[in-house]
Amino acid sequence: MHFHQKPNTIVTEVQLNVQDFSKMKDFYTTILGLKIINETPSTIAFTADGQQVLLTLVATPDFSPRPKRSAGMYHFALLLPERSDLANFTAHLHQAGYPFAAADHSVSEALYLTDPEGNEIEIYIDRVPEEWTWQDELVEMTIDPLNFNALAQQQTAAGWQGIPTKTIMGHLHLYVSDLEQTKDFYTKGLGFDIVSRYANQALFLATGQYHHHIAINTWMGVGAPKSQPNQLGMAFYTLKYPDITALNQAIEHLEALGHSVQKNETGATVTDPSGIRVQLVSA
Questions:
Q1: What is the mean pLDDT of residues 6-23?
Q2: pLDDT tens across 260-282, in order?
Q3: Which residues of 23-40 are buried (b: 16+ CB within 10 A; e: fewer)?
Q4: Where in the sequence is the domain holding 190, given as residue range(s)?
Q5: I want to staple 224 with a disulfide (CB 3.0 to 4.6 A). Which of 57, 220, 236, 271 is the partner?
Q6: pTM over 0.90
Q7: Number of domains in the chain
């Protein structure tokens, strides 16, 4: 998981506005097996290792659902440490009777499921980088069927015991309104490299030659309505820079592009061209 260590820039946390606080808490503790690190009557923070917050839920019962064809989160992705963990999680979902989809992306093997309020989650493991195929500085990613028989052979006797301690936020995939405008924000502003493309509809962005830390697509339609702050779903995500110098450089680049950056005690916040809020911090 060196792709998620210094000197790389990584997504560390996602915050969700939720309507049914109790039902969502039950899903993330029972189905996903995340651990609660902090809880109040209206917020709950989840972790894998007891230190890094991966996901925060905020009770916002008066917020309206995000319109289906609009900008916002496609999915957040939790990266498991071992293939056996993915095998055990697959068996756990079967046993719980919880629906999911699956895919082999060449660089990774992944499961996809949706929480009770429609937020999509990817749970995945990476293949070793030596097995990835690069051509002209772009990594090859596919959407092939997952070999469940081969995966099942990796199950352990202990089975699924909840999210493993070494699980991290692997990447984030976003629906955006305009690919070109958003591309400049993430590359020229935030400092990511383009590492893969899907026609003229999606870009995969990373630092340190990962297959992607962030992906953006226009699958909700070019010109889709922007994300709004009073909607259910993702409120913002946190992007962590390796040091304060890298963070300040990103802030300078964003301001040079004409974006309004609000500095605060922990770093800064900025909104991308599709209305998606980003919290910028440094290690």
A1: 98
A2: 999 999 999 999 999 999 999 99
A3: ebbebbbebbbbbebeee
A4: 2-282
A5: 220
A6: yes
A7: 1
